[in-house]
Amino acid sequence: MELGHDTECALAIVVDLVNSGPERSPSATEGLVDLAALQSFVARREISEVGSLTREDLAAVLRLRERLLAVFVAPDEPTAVRLVNDLVADARTTPRLTDHDQWPLHIHYAAPGARLGEHLAADCGMALAQLTAAGERQRLAVCAAPDCERVLVDLSRNRSKRYCDSRTCGNRLHVAAYRARRRTG
Range of 116's domain? Predict the structure, then answer.
């Protein structure tokens, strides 16, 4: 499935943002505790056109995180569509072409000068809208490990990704299954 670089980056931001919550974190701690953590998130995800951050930005991003999670756990497609539409409408999307930071022309959806929460809501909301419009909402999932609540976007060709991280959750379950087979065999 070809979504384009920006859409895949926005979906990675969605996953990273949702998984920063304490209920989704392996260490059960808040990943965005303060402005420094938010600034680190912005730098790690290379989010462009972000001005100085305020406590209001942090609060807006934390509210956005809950709205994004709701899309992942929506019970059906009509509910997910309504949630994505509300998200995009509230973000006041303003599509425009840009070619910053040595990237070829691509589309930004946030209005120039938008605060971080609105910027992320526009870009992430449009990425979720594109995925949903393509009939691929089932690619949004919660990790299949029984003790993990993290989310993932399965961009594999055969839609086989089941774990948020195959090196931790996936490997842990495979090792446990192997050991159980060895005990019974």
Answer: 5-184
Q: Give the whole-angstrom CA distance, residue 145 versus residue 165.
A: 10
Q: Which residues contact 108 (CB under 8 A, 6 or more apart)?
A: 48, 49, 95, 96, 97, 98, 123
pLDDT at position 1: 63
Cα–Cα distance, 155 to 47 (Å, whole number): 21
DSSP 3-state percent helix, strand, coil across the chain (nearest 5): 50, 5, 40
Bridging pattern class, strands 106-108 and 140-142: unpaired
Place of tokens 């976007």: 153
Which residues have CB under 8 Å from 120's CB, separation 6+? 13, 17, 47, 61, 64, 110
pLDDT tens by residue, 9-44: 999 999 999 999 887 766 667 889 999 999 999 999
User: pLDDT, tens digit, for every residue of 87-107?
Assistant: 999 998 889 888 877 777 888
Domain count, the chain: 1
Q: How many CB atoms lie within 10 A of CB 16?
A: 14
- Rounded CA-CA distance 88/121 in Å is 7
- CATH assignment at residue 160: 1.10.3300.10
